[in-house]
TrEMBL record, chain A:
TPR repeats lie at residues 233-266. It comes from the Bacteria. It comes from Vreelandella arcis. SMART domains: TPR. This is Peptidase_C39 like family protein. Residues 47-154 form the Peptidase C39-like domain. Residues 1-26 form the signal peptide.
TrEMBL record, chain B:
InterPro entries: PA2779-like (IPR046735), UCP029543 (IPR016924). This is PA2779 family protein. It comes from Vreelandella arcis. It holds the Pfam family DUF6627. It comes from the Bacteria.
Length: 311, 132
């Protein structure tokens, strides 16, 4: 008998070990020292409204929470036909972001680290996170809204499923979040840029907004981005195009010129300067800019050469 | 939906042909002075040629078809697909089946109940709130 018990124990231990290896053991994610020092010990965005999910509707529920928090008049019922896919019994990430934009808000991906997540919460922005609550072999994909944390007991608080304040350990949360490569986003009004959004993610989010709503509606967001990242050539370039669409060619020109100052190799910016100056009947200045554009190898070279040749 | 696709394809093919003509046909005195858009620079930076962008437009019709097949409302499907950025549309077109669909906290299969119960207790998963 004793040997059988011992065998069973060994088998159980083996199964547990295997599970541990398969899912990478849960350990409390360690924060960088600077993060630990800068962040308040605890924070909770209690004013984020709660919408309980019904059936498979965690996507629409999560969106309803962050959108109403940003002043959008909507609810779960309105959002279900906009984001839920009946055949998949769930909602997919690209459509989560796209639906935010339909409600005239920016959807800005966050950097997938635990430090960044907590910083966004401390800065006052609830974060929609995607988790796999189960193991990779039997996935249970889920969207929740992170609203707070407590560094004293290493816990995070979510609006999740049917639970208004779901408080769990950092380690458990991070194990489930890591299974989506720590995917998450924040929502912002156009013309604002939440603290801590990287230049790349701001560019992606604002440009996607522009694709849907046009450059005029996006002008204020580009302004906000340039204010945050004044040295970013592409942001200056985008601002120039938005000013141009808003019929402010002089401001457009100076934004394109800032872009070339920040990145003298940006052919598209030189080309736009030249085109704008051609429109403004300044052929000499235009020729200079187009000559620059024509000298930089890349996709815009041919068009610049063509414009020079035709004049 | 088939009709929309066929119509869109024809339109795009026509657009392609027309836009490739002017080099030869347009009077040399009036080259276009349209500015380079932010999106074409971003697409260019991520290695997308114009041809691929047009391909993405065609993909959108495919995505609409697919979403309707998956039970999405006909009245909504157009606005949903229109709200996707080019990059998102590409993601949807290439891998809609594989994209994880967030559904939430619902009952797990009994077969895996015990395993998940154990991993829940170990703090690896978050399936059964009563384990805490």
């Amino acid at each position: 008998m004793a040997t059988i018990y011992r065998f069973q124990n060994a088998r159980l231990a083996g199964v547990l070990l295997l599970l541990c290896l398969l899912s990478a053991c849960a350990s409390t994610p360690s924060l960088r020292d600077t993060t630990e020092q800068q962040l308040p010990r605890q924070s909770e965005l209690a004013d984020v409204p709660f919408y309980a999910q019904t059936e498979y509707q965690c996507g629409p529920a999560a969106l309803a929470m962050v959108l109403t928090h940003q002043g959008v008049d909507t609810d779960v019922e309105t959002l279900i036909p906009q984001v839920f896919i009946p055949g998949r019994e769930g909602s997919v990430q690209p459509e989560m972001l796209a639906t935010v934009r339909r409600h005239e808000r920016l959807a800005l991906p966050i950097r997938g680290t635990f430090d960044d997540l907590l910083k966004h919460l401390a800065a006052g922005d609830p974060v929609v996170v995607m988790q796999n609550l189960s193991l990779p072999a039997f996935p249970m994909w889920h969207y929740a809204v992170a609203i707070g944390y407590n560094l004293d007991d290493d816990s995070i608080t979510l609006r999740s499923g049917e639970i208004e304040r779901h408080t769990i350990a950092f380690s458990r949360f991070d194990a489930t979040w890591a299974r989506t490569d720590r995917w998450g986003f924040v929502v912002a009004k156009p013309g604002t840029l939440p603290e801590g959004i990287t230049a790349h993610n701001a560019l992606t989010g604002i440009s996607a907004y522009e694709e849907l709503h046009g450059p005029k509606a996006t002008l204020s967001s580009w302004q906000a981005m340039v204010e945050r990242y004044p040295g970013h050539a592409l942001a200056q370039f985008a601002l120039g195009n938005a000013y141009y669409a808003d019929e402010q060619p002089d401001k457009a020109l100076s934004a394109f010129q800032s872009a070339t100052r920040n990145d003298p190799e940006m052919g598209a910016a030189w080309l736009n300067i030249g085109l704008l100056q051609l429109q403004q009947n300044q052929p000499d200045a235009a020729r200079q800019a187009l000559t620059q554009a024509a000298s930089i190898e890349g996709s815009w070279q041919a068009r610049a050469q063509e414009l020079l040749g035709q004049r | 939906m088939k009709n929309i696709r066929a119509y869109l394809s024809t339109l795009l093919i026509a657009a392609l042909v027309i836009t490739s003509l002017p080099v030869a046909a347009a009077p040399a005195a009036s080259p276009s002075t349209d500015l380079v858009s932010t999106q074409s620079v971003l697409a260019n930076d991520s290695g997308l040629a114009d041809r691929e962008r047009i391909h993405q437009l065609l993909n959108r019709a495919d995505i609409q078809d697919e979403l309707v097949k998956q039970g999405v409302d006909l009245d909504e499907v157009e606005a949903r697909v229109a709200a996707l950025s080019d990059a998102e549309a590409q993601q949807m077109a290439n891998q809609l089946e594989e994209l994880p669909a967030g559904a939430g906290v619902i009952g797990a299969l009994f077969a895996v109940f015990v395993i998940l119960l154990v991993t829940d207790i170990l703090g690896l998963t978050d399936v059964y709130p009563f384990t805490r």
